[in-house]
Each structure stands twice: as C-alpha cells, then as structure tokens.
C-alpha cells in the first residue's frame, strides 16, 4: 500500500502549517514584514500543568560531580581508572612521606569493601582527593566532613582534615578529630573557610596525621552547603537554575541509565536507598561508576524541593547490550514485583512495607505519583520482546494502582498505554521544520509510523504523547543560540498541541563541562554532545536553550489561543552575498582575487599584503603568506569569506595552487555567512570531480553536473566563476568546466508564533521565534480581548546565532526585559534577527 499523501491532503497540510508557522525567505534587502493575528475569543487546548518537566539520568557527571553535592570523587576507592604513584586509587594521592595501600580486609560494611591504609613514618603525611576536577573553595563557607577511620600498629594521634589550594598548598580550612581508635568509627568534622579565602576550584581535600603506625580510611565524604541545607543534598546553584525552568515533573532515572550496559549494572533501586554509606554503588552506562549517593530518596528530595512530581522509569528486563528476559520468565516476575515495590516506596502510605522505608528516610508523606514509564527506548530491543515485557508489567501495575498512567517507550500491541514516550535529537533545521509535527491529523491522513524513537504525529484514541527526550544538536557541550531558537520553535509547536503532547522534557539536562586532564588520565566531564546546563566544580550556567525554555516555562499560560501568522514577501528567493575561498583537508593558496560586475567594472580586489583579519573564517584560521591567502592548517575543512553581502551578479577571478592534501579548491559566492553560501568544489570527492554545492544553514547539498577534475599539486590554475542569478559557470584556465543552476530555495529563516492566555492575570502571552537573519516587522492584532493595557512587558533572547554561554561567560546570551509602550489591539513590533520574544499583554480592567 502506498503511504504517499494525496494532493488534497498535501494542500490541507500546507494550510495547517502556514497557520502554525511560516517558513519564509527574505527579500533582496532583507525586509520581512508579517501580520500576526491572535484571537482570544477562540481558545484552543488547555496546557496541562505537567507540560514542562525535566529528564534526568547519571550522564555527563550529572549527579556525581554535578547535582549531588558530594565533593569527593571515588569516596569508596572502587572507581576504575589508572592508579596513582604508589598504587593510590584514581583521584587519590599521597601527601608527605606516607605509604598507601588499598586494603580489602575487615571492611566497615559489605557496601564499602575497600579501605585506604596509610602508613606513617613520624612526619606529617596524608591522602588527598582532587574532587571532580577540583574541590571548590569559596570564602566564608562551611563544609561537612564524614569518614570512617581506624588505627593500627600503635597509631594514636588525631586526624586532620583540611582543604588546601593547589597554589602554594595553602590550607584554607582545617579541623581535627579526637584520637583515633583501633575499631572502625565514623568521624564527622566541620571545616570553615575564612572571609579572605579565594574562590577557586584548584584545591584538594586532605586527611593527614603525624606519628607512627597506620591509619585506615573508608567512605570519605565532603559536602559544601546544600540546597536548603538538606543532608546528603543537592548543589544550590544548579537547583536555582532548575527552579528557573519551573518543572512540574522529573523523569528519573533515565534514559539509558535505567537499563545499564549489562544485567549486573542495571538500575537496581533497592541498592539506592538507605544510608549512603550502605549503598554499594555501581558501574553506570556512560563510562564511569556511580556512587549512588544520589539514589531514590535524593530523587524524592529533588522533586520535593522543586515542587515537581516524580515520573518514574522502571527497569523492564532489557539492558543496553541487548540481553533481555521474555515475558513470563522468573526474572520478569522479579522485575515486575520490584517495580510495584518501587511505586509503593514512592507513593505508598507510611505504614506500608516500602512506604515505611521511605518515611524512615525523611519523607513520611507519600509522593503524588501519576506516571510510570516501563523501560526506556525499548525500540532498540530488536528481538520484539518489549510488547510482552510491557504488557506483563503494565497489567500488574494497572491491577495494583489503577489510577497510574502508564507510558510505553516503544510501539506495543498487547496492552494500550496511556502515553507514548517520543524522543527526538535533531538539527536546528529539522526542528524548525517540525513545528507542526503534532498538529491534528486530517481525516484520511496516512497511518502513524514509528521510526528511530518517535511516532510520525499525534496518537489516536485518546493516547497522549510524552516527548520525554528532545534537543537540537548544535553546540558542544552546550547548545548555541541557533539551537535554542530551533528548540523554542519545536516547543511552541508542542505547546500549541498540548491536548496531544501533555508532557515534554529536554535531554540531557546537566553536563560537567570540565575538559580532559591527560596528565592525570581524567576524561572530559561530558559524554553527550549537546546538553542544557553546564558547570564545573565552582561555576554554572544556563545555555541559550536553557534560557529559551525558562522563558517559555515562566510564560506558559493556561490555554492556547488561535494564532495566524502571515509573512511577506513569501517565498522570495535571496540571491546575493559575498565571496570566499576554502579548503577541504587540503593546503591550497589563492591570490589575485577580484570581483567584477557583469558590465566589467571592478567591485573588489583582495588586499593580500597584510593579515587575514578582514576575512571572516569558519572551521579554522586562515593566513596571508607571500601574497596569497591559505588555511593555517591543511588538515581541516575551513573557508574564509570577504566582500559585500548585497552583491548579486558578478564574476570572481583568482589564481589557485594546491600545495598538499586530499582535494583541491573551494570558491564561494552568494556567501551570507559561514553556514549559508554556494561553492564551486574543484577537486572534491577525493580530488575526482568539480561540482557546485549549496549550504543552507550548514546543511550542504551538491547540485548540477559532475565534471571529472583532478587538481595537480604545485600548479597555478586560473579560476573564474561567473554568477548570474541562480546560475554559475566555472572556468579553469578559461575553459568551461561546470555550468549549473541551483533549483533549491536558499535557507528559509523560520518565524514561528503562538499565543496563550494566563487566566489568573488576564494576560495574553505572545511568543515569537525569529530564527532568521533579518528583523521581522510585524503588525500584531489581538482580537476578542477587549481593551488592552497600553504598556506590555517583553522578554527577548537574541544574539549571534553561533553564540554560546560558558563558565567564563555565563550570561553572554541571556534574556533581556523591556517595557513596551503603545500596545493596543493593533500595534507594530519588530522581532530582531535570531531572537525569541515573549510579550505579556494585559487585558485592561473594565
Ligand atoms: O539523553 C541521552 C540518551 O539518549 C538517553 O540516555 C537515551 O534514552 C537516549 O538515547
């Protein structure tokens, strides 16, 4: 059966997406006008409370080295990794003349199988931990130290705990225990830094002593102040950032992390409750071991402190290496029982078996739990066992907890889920084209299909969608502003369809952005390319995507309003831009570069006598040497642009020579920026062809005929590119090689608009993404709302599309607030290029 939509359906779809959003191309001078109609008298879907939430798991040192405030890395000495001098476990080192061994005899308890034994020779010696890429020191700050110690071989003196900066080994805080005895005992100390202490992460935590004999340590823990002072709690700056996202749920514990790489590493929740020093920890699936200090009680603490509801992901009998158990096996019976018990632990009364355990851990009140997800991304299970596994667990959950909404992570047939969990990791361009993904499906629309983690649209028959993981993959370790705008556009599309998409969460949420430390053998802090919030031991920041989502979450409203956006001139094709030269893993040089108008007069001659600072480069530096421009290194893909962005038709002349490398020459025209241009690729495809290519927002496509061409090393070529409208003709040594016309519409900057109503404050909230490079001058008409206050509030996130935030520049891209005057039921507003705007317009009091 054909799945191709009929022309009528296509037409309807087109109309629907024009209403939802408009993909526009700009006029020759970049003038874009728009009309945005918002109709308050036509309310659409109600936006559920649960719409904004968080997806979390142990990835990118999200918990250990992130949200979980513990500062000691490898506090139980079990982490895999290279041992230090004298055999110290990773992240530990010896201070002074002592000798250290890892001991498995006589442990404190079965969860702490190893201890660190320090032999002393009289002088002061100790063991130091360098934390998660450093121990953060702040002035006037109190730290809580906990460790087990026992003395042997005649050791009696006290132990000193201290924090010492790397620079000069300065002690910024210290405290001492009483005399250590011969039996394991837990010691707790308080360290306090002075007002004059530096703010630095270049510091270590040291346990030291003087004397002779041996002292052993186990479970060494150091906590800074936590969010709202909770013991074994969470990092305050990250919790503040998370609170800014106004999350109404937290999906936990994953993600791949709920599955684990092998059965032995699955998320075994019963080992993640109780006192942290009785949790054995386990190998996570993202390349490092988890202390499991951030266990189920801490997840509940997190929900409680953010006033968010837990969305529980339960282990469902499948692990990432493909191993699984089929429905009906004793193992699946065990996992089903464990899931029911986990639900009871979270939501059961304090006198139930597992509710009692929760109450004992500080949470007497049962948590409101409405959603349980069975497994994660079980479409990876190619054996087809998910349907049975899901049905077995779903039936048991439904029977015991009929009110719970059950989420499926992959297509199922044998039991109807309440929600499906769709996942999308996409490019900015893809997300900008997906704002109508969940629009109502017209009668006769093709059947829904499932592909690589998501369905092709909204579900029928009352089944809802949880978009449980989604993100624009652009920028690393955190996204660019361009990604944030695509995120916002996709999010507005979901919000407009909040009757179908009732919950959504970006992923991954957190990333430790520390670079690798090769000298110590430490990896970088993040494993996933693009992540929402970044931090090191001391500082943190929200990415542009964070700010976009915080803006939208803080301005959610209760109900979607009917919105119509017309943008003009629709479909006009821009054929203009500067010129440039490039190299594809090749060392090529260019000289005698000129541009002339069709009538012959010269428009430009490149000055190749100075440096290359007038050129705008992408992919790597360029330099001018001996009167020619060339890439600074011949091992990458890079290009350099110069000239007038308003040039339309022209001829480029230059001489080019290949010095070394894989390919040949790249000559650019209609270059708007590093992502939007055409180029003639001479000697491309491993030095075999000459062909034209166009890049739309970084998405490159070749077009027109392929001419066989091989560039010789060391030979100068005369290159000429004649550009007329969408046609280019490329000549080498006056011989026509390529004659191509580009049929593809150039990058279409997207404008997306929605509006919602906040009933309590009678406020119309207009949300506009302008992901294009030109301002959009819009007539905004608000109908059906009566009179409006003439003053509105705007929050605008704008900047260069490639801009990112970092720990050094945490608010380079951040929302700006503005008071807007002259608002009425019909007013004008210019939406800046590369921006997200939220306008809060109040209905006037009658
Ligand atoms: O968010 C990162 C990973 O992406 C999650 O663990 C997994 O569910 C998905 O594949």
Q: How would the blueprint of this fold be written?
A:
Blueprint: H1 7-20, E1 21-23, E2 32-46, E3 54-55, E4 92-95, E5 99-103, E6 115-129, E7 142-152, E8 160-165, E9 171-176, E10 185-192, E11 203-223, H2 236-244, E12 249-252, H3 256-259, E13 282-283, E14 289-290, H4 296-306, E15 309-314, H5 330-347, H6 353-360, E16 371-374, H7 386-400, E17 405-408, E18 419-426, H8 428-432, E19 450-451, E20 454-455, E21 464-472, H9 481-496, E22 501-504, E23 510-512, E24 533-535, E25 540-542, H10 544-554, E26 559-568, E27 578-584, E28 586-596, E29 602-605, E30 616-618, E31 622-625, E32 628-631, E33 637-642, E34 650-661, E35 665-673, E36 676-683, H11 684-687, E37 689-696, E38 699-708, E39 716-724, E40 727-732, E41 735-741, E42 750-758, E43 763-770, E44 776-783, E45 792-798, E46 816-820, E47 826-831, E48 835-842
Parallel strand pairs: 2-44, 3-12, 12-15, 15-16, 16-17, 17-18, 18-21, 21-22, 23-24
Antiparallel strand pairs: 1-42, 2-26, 4-6, 5-6, 6-11, 7-10, 7-11, 8-9, 8-11, 13-14, 19-20, 24-25, 26-42, 27-33, 27-35, 28-29, 28-34, 30-33, 31-32, 34-39, 35-36, 36-37, 37-38, 39-40, 40-41, 42-43, 43-48, 44-47, 45-46, 45-48
Helix pairs in contact: 5-6, 5-7, 9-10
Bound molecules: alpha-L-arabinofuranose (AHR).
Short description:
14% of the residues lie in helices and 38% in strands. With 846 residues, the chain is mainly beta. It folds into 4 domains: 7-45 and 564-571 and 747-842, Sandwich (Immunoglobulin-like); 54-61 and 240-440 and 449-556, TIM Barrel (Alpha-Beta Barrel), CATH 3.20.20; 85-225, Jelly Rolls (Sandwich); 578-741, Exo-inulinase, domain 1 (Jelly Rolls).
């Amino acid at each position: 059966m054909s799945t191709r939509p009929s022309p009528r359906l296509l037409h309807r779809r087109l109309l629907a997406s024009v209403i939802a959003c408009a993909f526009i191309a700009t006029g020759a001078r970049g003038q874009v006008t728009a009309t945005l109609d918002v109709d308050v008298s036509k309310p659409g879907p109600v936006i559920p409370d649960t719409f904004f939430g968080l997806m979390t798991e142990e990835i990118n040192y999200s918990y250990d080295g992130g949200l979980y405030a513990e500062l000691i890395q490898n506090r139980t000495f079990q982490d895999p990794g290279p041992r230090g001098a004298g055999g110290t476990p990773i992240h530990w080192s010896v201070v002074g003349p002592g000798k250290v061994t890892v001991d498995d005899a006589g442990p404190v308890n079965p969860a702490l199988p190893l201890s660190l034994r320090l032999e002393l020779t009289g002088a002061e010696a100790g063991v130091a931990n360098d934390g998660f890429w450093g121990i953060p020191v702040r002035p006037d700050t109190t730290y809580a130290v906990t460790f087990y110690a026992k003395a042997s071989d005649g050791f009696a003196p006290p132990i000193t705990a201290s924090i010492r900066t790397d620079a000069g080994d300065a002690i910024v805080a210290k405290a001492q225990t009483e005399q250590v005895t011969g039996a394991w005992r837990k010691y707790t100390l308080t360290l306090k830094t002075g007002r004059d202490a530096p703010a630095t992460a270049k510091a270590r935590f040291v346990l030291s002593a003087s004397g002779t004999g041996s002292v052993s340590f186990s479970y060494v823990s150091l906590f800074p102040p936590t969010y709202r002072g909770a013991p074994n709690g969470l990092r305050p700056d990250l919790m503040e950032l998370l609170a800014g996202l106004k999350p109404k749920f937290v999906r936990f514990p994953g993600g791949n992390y709920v599955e684990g790489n092998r059965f032995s590493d699955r998320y075994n929740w019963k080992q993640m409750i109780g006192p942290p020093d009785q949790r054995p920890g386990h190998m996570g699936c993202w390349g490092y071991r988890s202390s499991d200090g951030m266990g189920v009680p801490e997840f509940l603490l997190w929900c409680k402190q953010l006033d968010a509801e837990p969305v529980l992901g339960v282990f469902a009998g499948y692990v990432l290496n493909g191993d699984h158990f089929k429905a009906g096996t004793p193992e699946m019976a065990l996992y089903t029982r464990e899931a029911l018990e986990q639900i009871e632990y979270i939501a059961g009364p304090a006198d139930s078996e597992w509710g009692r355990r929760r109450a004992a851990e500080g949470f007497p009140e049962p948590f409101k739990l409405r959603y349980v997800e069975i497994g994660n991304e079980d479409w990876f299970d190619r054996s087809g066992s998910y349907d049975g596994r899901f049905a077995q667990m779903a039936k048991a959950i439904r029977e015991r907890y009929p009110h719970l909404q059950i989420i499926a992570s992959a297509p199922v047939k044998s039991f109807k889920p309440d929600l499906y969990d769709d996942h999308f990791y996409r490019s900015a361009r893809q997300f900008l084209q997906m704002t109508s993904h969940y629009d109502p499906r017209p009668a006769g629309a093709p059947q829904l299909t499932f592909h690589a983690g998501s369905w092709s649209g909204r579900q029928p028959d009352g089944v809802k969608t949880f978009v449980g993981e989604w993100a624009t993959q652009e920028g690393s370790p955190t996204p660019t502003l361009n990604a944030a705008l695509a995120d916002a556009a996709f999010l507005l599309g979901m919000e407009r369809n909040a009757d179908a998409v009732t919950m959504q969460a970006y992923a991954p949420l957190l990333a430790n952005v520390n670079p690798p430390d090769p000298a110590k053998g430490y990896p970088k802090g993040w494993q996933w390319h693009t992540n929402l919030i970044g931090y090191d031991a001391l500082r943190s920041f929200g990415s542009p995507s964070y700010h976009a989502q915080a803006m939208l979450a803080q301005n959610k409203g209760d109900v979607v309003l009917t919105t119509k956006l017309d943008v003009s001139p629709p479909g006009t094709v821009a054929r203009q831009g500067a010129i440039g030269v490039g190299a594809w893993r090749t060392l090529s040089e260019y000289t005698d570069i000129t541009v002339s108008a069709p009538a012959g007069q010269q428009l430009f001659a490149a000055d190749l006598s100075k440096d290359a600072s007038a050129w705008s480069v992408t992919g790597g530096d360029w330099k001018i040497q001996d009167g020619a421009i060339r890439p600074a290194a011949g091992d990458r893909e890079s290009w350099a642009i110069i000239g007038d962005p308003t040039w339309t038709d022209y001829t480029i002349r230059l001489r080019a020579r290949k010095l070394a490398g894989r390919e040949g020459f790249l000559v650019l025209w209609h270059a708007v920026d590093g992502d939007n241009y055409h180029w003639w690729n001479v000697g491309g495809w491993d030095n075999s062809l000459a062909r034209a290519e166009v890049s739309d927002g970084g998405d490159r496509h070749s077009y027109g005929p392929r001419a066989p061409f091989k560039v010789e090393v060391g030979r100068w070529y005369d290159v000429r590119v004649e550009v007329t409208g969408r046609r280019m003709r490329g000549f080498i040594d006056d011989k026509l090689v390529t004659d191509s016309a580009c049929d593809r519409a150039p990058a279409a900057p997207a404008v997306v608009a929605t509006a919602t109503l906040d009933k309590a404050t009678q406020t119309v909230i207009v949300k506009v993404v302008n992901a294009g490079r030109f301002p959009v001058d819009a007539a905004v008409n608000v109908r059906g709302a009566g009179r409006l206050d003439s003053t509105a509030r705007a929050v605008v996130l704008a900047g260069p599309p490639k801009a990112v935030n970092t720990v050094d520049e945490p608010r380079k891209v951040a929302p700006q607030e503005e008071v807007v005057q002259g608002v009425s039921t019909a007013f004008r507003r210019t939406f800046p290029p590369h921006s997200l705007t939220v306008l809060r317009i109040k209905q006037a009091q009658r």
